[in-house]
Write a structure and sequence with these properties.
This protein starts with 28 loop residues before the first helix and ends in a 10-residue tail after the last helix. Helix content is 41%, strand content 12%. A 3-stranded antiparallel β-sheet has the order 1-3-2. It is α+β, with helices and mostly antiparallel strands and 126 residues long. The radius of gyration is 16 Å and the shape is elongated. Strand 2 and strand 3 form a beta hairpin.
């Protein structure tokens, strides 16, 4: 098993400048690579459903024991998909005894939606 260091987007003071929207400025190579990891992870229907289940859970976190029965997949396969979501910087987890609890990283979904937004904040009307 490799010990790669995971860089989580938006964990520094420059989180607003991390990913400009599509209409504001072109992405540089680094920004494109960071966003590509996230979108690639979301390109699988199982991972997209997992992220949705985690993000929509009351309390903001969900036990892996509640995720696995929702799929017709083995537990190791679900764990693999969750690992890819973690490596992409979309979710984080915490082990509590036997179980692992997953949560969406704060601001991650907002950054993705801000990048995809086609209207700028200044153009919005009340």
């Amino acid at each position: 098993m490799s010990k790669q260091e995971l860089v989580v987007l938006g964990q520094d003071d420059q989180s607003d400048t991390c990913c400009p929207g599509l209409l504001t400025a072109p992405l540089d190579d680094v920004q494109a690579a960071e966003l590509a990891k996230m979108f690639k992870a979301l390109g699988d229907p199982v991972r997209l459903r997992l992220l949705s289940m985690i993000a929509s859970r009351a309390g903001g976190e969900v036990c892996v024991c509640d995720l696995t029965p929702a799929f017709d997949l083995s537990q190791p396969t679900i764990s693999h998909h969750l690992k890819l979501l973690r490596q992409a910087g979309l979710i984080d987890c915490e082990r509590r005894g036997t179980w692992v609890y997953y949560r969406v990283l704060p601001g991650t979904l907002d950054r993705l939606s801000a990048f995809l937004a086609t209207t700028q904040k200044a153009e919005k009307t009340p």
